Amino acid sequence: MQPSVFQGDIAYFPTIDRIPFEGPGSDNPLAFKAYNPGQVVGDKTMAEHLRFAACYWHTFHGTGADPFGPGTRAYVWNQHADPMDAARARLDAAFEFFTKLGVPFYCFHDRDLAPAGSSVAESEHNLQVLTDLAKARQQATGMKLLWGTANMFSDPRYMNGAATNPDLLVVSHAAAQVKAALEATVALDGENYVFWGGREGYACLLNTNTQRELEHFARFLTMARDYGRSIGFNGVFLIEPKPMEPMFHQYDFDAQTVIGFLRHHDLDRDFKLNIEANHATLAGHTFAHELQMCVDAGMLGSIDANRGNAQNGWDTDQFPTDMNDCIAAMQVVLAQGGLGRGGLNFDAKLRRESTDLDDLFIAHIGAMDAFARALVIADKLNNDSVLSKHKAARYSSFDTALGRDFAAGKLSLADLRDHAAKEGEPTAQSGKQELIENRVNDLVFGG
Questions:
Q1: What totals of helices (H) and strands (E) does the chain contain, helices first?
Q2: May I ask the CATH architecture of the domain 40-383?
Q3: Where is the active site (predicted)?
């Protein structure tokens, strides 16, 4: 059921109605061409598969600023002298946008929702006030919170990290933020809670005790988990890998690094991973690779859906419209049975040159259509007998009795030596990569 449009005191998008589904024949930029929430793909509707979420930060705080110049957009909801008045206006604008766009979920950092105060107590009060307002908006619209998190990277106090900071007082401030953000997430029935270690790393090994910092990081996550469970948070804790930026060496570099860290510290039963496409490419991987590593470990939680620029070594957070990436990602997600409590959150921002209000809608519509198309195509690819037979054939030797004994740990190194000596040189087996890639194109484009 689609939520009703929230009617605040002010309409921030007065010329835009609820975004309709008009199908592939439409040329209306403010309509969906592929995303039809009720359309069934496999065993679920598109809405159930994709669980789209709009992010609070880029969408309602983003001004188009970059390292070389100030912002190019000045949204009316941010034009208030009192930061709390701006926060209230921003909340109304956000819920009007969410409901007109038709996404079922949203997500936020604590400082997106409410401004920091001059003390820990004032910051907590500000967040509580906005949490109460957000709860009323959720009840009025049917919107849900996909996840909450704390911004522990923007404030100058976190220049040397938050949970891994060498100063206990800084770690304590980070703990205060996480405590309050967890409380807000619970109050808003959030399905997940994310840790994005934006500055959890180091710049110089000569002044850094890496072992101590990583132990502190694990201790911090353990404390957060325990507190969350104690106040009734039954959702999934997520860690979002990110390489190189902004710290020179990030502790949460990629999926396998984070998975190993969580397992080493016995946190893998409560934590899963939130994979961002742009972070994957910055780590030298594909989006699909990072997702697959999580699936293999049973630890895929949710997705930050965006893309980077292949010619730019920076986190550009562009809206995801690359169909190859979207299709490959959805193949992995569908093969593991879906995202569970996770979703596809658009951690993406308008380009600096996009300055009209309707650009916010157009960007999200394009991304949602891209993943809707990818969902349909991925379902077709995953059910294609030609592709599945080729993959199965590559590993057929492990389906023999000897192969099953190897996988079960019943063979020794000497047993394998004797098998090699008896059978002689193996016959080369083609990977058929080109045939498979051609098959994919045939299925995608109907050739």
A1: 16, 12
A2: Alpha-Beta Barrel (3.20)
A3: 109, 112
DSSP string, 256-294: HHHHHHHHHTT-TTTEEEEEEHHHHHHTTS-HHHHHHHH
User: Which residues belong to the annotated binding site for Mg(2+)?
Assistant: 240, 276, 279, 304, 315, 317, 347
pTM (2 decimals)?
0.95
Catalytic residues: 109, 112
Q: Which amino acid is at 337?
A: G
SS3 42: coil
**Bridge partners for 249 per DSSP:** 202
Domain map of the chain by residue range?
A: 40-383, 400-445
Output the CA torsion 188→191→195→198 (10° steps): -80
SS (H, E, C) 162-194: CCCCCCHHHHHHHHHHHHHHHHHHHHCCCCEEE
pLDDT in tens, 131-190: 999 999 999 999 999 999 999 999 999 999 999 999 999 999 999 999 999 999 999 999
CB atoms within 10 A of CB 173: 19
